[in-house]
UniProtKB/TrEMBL annotation:
The keyword DNA repair does not apply. The chain crosses the membrane at residues 59-76, 88-108. It comes from the Bacteria. Keywords: Membrane, Transmembrane, Transmembrane helix. It comes from Streptomyces cinereoruber. This is DUF1003 domain-containing protein.
Length: 189
């Protein structure tokens, strides 16, 4: 009997070793990737900074100064010191490269701004809906209060009713003057 239990335990251990159990409540281990990972938000923030810089006057001044220095250097510098020997082909290549990178970066920045605007617009729309719902609720409550106040006795109304009652009592007193009130508890019959 003990030998059977020992064998059963060994079989269970062998099964556990043979097939690893997959736990659904634990995250899987990360697999090695061939391509490096990057944070798309960090890339987007960097591209927005570059796009903002490309749209400033500072960038235009620096680019203009660079081109002027480039052209003057390649015109007036001695032959061996010129780095753009052909008629400014390297300058054209550099400017084309800058433009080819600037356009997608600017588009990426615009797309990110559009996404932010869309989210802000959605939040504003929801806030407006809540404000309208709150306003409608308050309007209904004020109307209910007005209707309730219409049925409440006000100070002026009570005064006027008391004055009317007082006048009526004085009129009765004038019509029915009271004489000797002794023995009035007994009916006249």
């Amino acid at each position: 009997m003990a030998a059977e239990r020992t064998q059963d335990r060994e079989r269970e251990r062998d099964r556990e070793r043979a097939v690893p159990r997959i736990r659904l409540d634990l995250p899987r281990e990360r697999r090695a990737r061939l391509l490096p990972e990057y944070d798309p938000e960090a890339f987007g923030r960097m591209s927005e900074r570059i796009a903002r810089f490309l749209g400033t006057g500072r960038f235009l001044v620096w680019m203009t100064l660079t081109i002027v220095v480039w052209v003057l250097w390649n015109i007036f510098a001695p032959g061996p010191l010129k780095f753009d020997e052909y008629p400014f082909i390297f300058l054209t290549l550099a400017l084309s490269l800058q433009a080819s990178y600037a356009a997608p970066l600017i588009l990426l920045a615009q797309n990110r701004q559009d996404d932010r605007d869309r989210v802000n617009l959605e939040q504003d729309r929801k806030q407006n809906e809540r404000s309208i719902a709150d306003t409608e609720y308050l309007t209904r409550e004020i109307a209910a209060l007005r209707m309730g106040l219409g049925e409440v006795a006000t100070r002026d109304w009570i005064r006027s009713e008391l004055q009317d009652l007082l006048k009526e009592m004085e009129e009765r007193r004038d019509l029915f003057p009271s004489g000797d009130t002794r023995g009035r508890d007994v009916p006249d019959r």
